[in-house]
Amino acid sequence: MADLIVQRPEGLYCPPGDFYIDPWRPVPRAVITHAHSDHARQGSGHYLASAPAEGVLRTRLGEIDLQTLRYGERVQHHGVTLSLHPAGHVLGSSQVRLEHGGEVWVASGDYKVAADPTCAPFEAVRCDVFITESTFGLPIYRWCPDEEIFADINAWWARNAIHGRASVLTCYSFGKAQRVLSGVDPSIGPIIVHGAVEPLNRAYRAEGVALPETRMVTDVKDKADLRRCLVVCPPGAAASPWVRRFGEAQTAFASGWMQVRGNRRRGGYDRGFVLSDHADWPGLMGAIEATGAQRVIVTHGSVPVMVRHLRERGLQAEAFDTEYGDDAVEGDLQAGQDNA
Q1: Of 70, 21, 75, 14, whose CA–CA distance to 44 is shortest?
Q2: Is 177 exposed, middle or buried (0-12, 13-18, 19+ CB in 10 A)?
Q3: Structural domains in the chain?
Q4: DSSP letter at 55?
Q5: Verdict on whether the full-model pTM lies above 0.85
């Protein structure tokens, strides 16, 4: 039986359905797992995504021909039954379930299995073939509970506020920023966000996600507020003239990459908080097992390690060569404006 999803120069293609999943080149019909810029790109003729993703997709891509589905809702296209299921990555993130000719394939996009109040939780979908990411596909990546991470972030912010220093917390503008905002203690002081973050906050609030009050720096009249605030911004902003208005400040970076020694130092940050919107090693292994898939296709990340490990577990494992993930690394570890 022919594969339901294959690689093409434009992206991952479903031959019987004649559509692409997260294409990296413009195509006539694109199914989008989520709105991060390495998975959702401009220029395609028609987009299909989950209903909760509509606001963030339109915020990031502008005017597009967008069709939405509720999670679990099924549609048929050229004989392929398609449905979208929560991936737990960011608001509106989806796994794409395809059924055709008696086989079920699931393309997961990016996902995490940890609880997150800013998006629907990951749903394991039974399938014959599972396409998985491997961003943190090494055994060293094992996340601490969110309660511990946010207790550390709040304590850091509170100490800085006592000493009259702003706390500049850098993170990806979409997904990570809103997750950070949902977990911090707003009683410590004012929360100021970068202009790249606030439009996405509005899209989250429009979907009913509870976030604390946030302000733009231009709205702050009391200079004392600038010396005790939490600043949430993309990494590039921390190295720009924009951050100078906060005066003496401590800087930190929230990312799964902070698990590795040296990343904080190379980025020039005072603190690093290990907080990721991707599954860690146990999360990846548990998610794959929960699908019941005997064939697993690995994309972007630690692909050779994951493929080898899955084969040792008796699964039929292989890889797809994709263009996902570059935005994630550039955005977090370097000075990008926006995913890890």
Answers
A1: 21
A2: buried
A3: 6-141+278-333 (3.60.15.10), 146-273 (3.40.50)
A4: H
A5: yes
In the chain, how many H helices and how many E strands?
10, 18
For residue range 230-243, list pLDDT tens digits in order: 999 999 998 899 99
For residue 269, give both structure tokens: 């940050």
Contact yes or no for 168/145 (Cβ under 8 A) = no
Helices (H), the chain: 54-61, 146-162, 176-183, 198-206, 223-226, 235-238, 263-267, 281-291, 303-312, 326-333
Burial 181-193, CB ≥16 within 10 A → b, else e? bbbbeeebbbbbb
Residues contacting 259, CB < 8 A, separation 6+: 136, 140, 141, 274
Query: Quick check: helix, strand or coil at residue 222?
Result: coil
Report which residue type is found at 255: S
Per-residue pLDDT reduced to its tens digit, 296-326? 999 999 999 999 999 999 999 999 999 998 5
Distance CA 312, CA 317 (A): 9
Nearest to 243 by CA among 335, 156, 151: 335
